[in-house]
Structure formats: C-alpha cells, structure tokens
Amino acid sequence: MKFGPGKLLTAGLGLVVVLAAGWAAFGTGGVLNPGKPERQRLLMPEDPELVAHGQKIYAANCASCHGNRLEGEPDWQTPNADGTFPAPPHDITGHTWHHGSELLFAITKYGVAQGAGLEGHVSNMPAFGGMLSDQDIIAVLSFIKSRWPEEIRLQHDALDESLSPGR
User: Fold this and answer.
1) Model's pTM, two decimal places?
2) For 37-111, where are the alpha helices, taking DSSP H only?
C-alpha cells in the first residue's frame, strides 16, 4: 500500500492532535490524571449563600464560646485550672488562620484531640460531627474565613496550597 504526501501529512497532523490532547488531559496534572488531581478549595469565603448559612450555624453552635464577633474568650492563651484553654478567637488575633483548612475541618468534626492527632489532649470544644453535616462545617469555616482581611485569606490559601498532597 502506498501513501501520498497528502495522506502522510493528514496522518501526522492527526497524531499531533491526539498526542496534544493526551498530554493536556494526563500529563499536566489535569482532572484526568489520578496521580495529580486539580485541587479544589475546601472553604469558599466568597460564596455569599454558603457564608450566610455558615453564619447562622456559627451563631447557634459556636458564638457562645468563640464570640459573636469571633473574638474568643478573654485570656484564651492562659490555661484554665483543669488544663483546658478558653476558646480562642477566630478573627486575626487568634491562630485559626495559621492552620490549614483540612485540619480546621477535622478539628471541628472530630474534636481537637482526634482531629489534630493530639492524643490525651483535653479540650472543652465538642466534636460537631454528630451534630453538623460536613457541608455545615464547611459553611461555618467559610463564614469565619470570610471575616478575615484579604491579605490573611491569601496567606491561608497559600498555606492550604503548600499542604496539598502532590504539590
């Protein structure tokens, strides 16, 4: 069988298109590459519906300890007599934004000791996994993050990116 220059050019261009599509789908960490999935952010502070939902849940479940304005309890860095600590602030004066989103989610869902892997740690904060859905927890954390200044949110995004597996 004999191929003319036109058929070879068409076949060559077809091969280039197939190789380029394969590289785009699998070679760049695209969604079709199971080894390096595209990272989706866990918290969405720019989603007004999610933030509004989170604000309601925060008011009902978190504000009694962490404050209506996320200010936390007084002297939150000084241990109580029983070894627990007062509830920390979730605004920029606290350390919430120093922790990645996945850790914040785990602490909220499972409690401090289990969520942070701190065996034997005693905390007054309950695990909310039995009371709130995963989406509710994400909404609360998105609400909290929405109250941080843009610079802090960007630093938190960079922290999440640095903690992302495979990056």
Assistant:
1) 0.75
2) 48-61, 63-66, 101-110
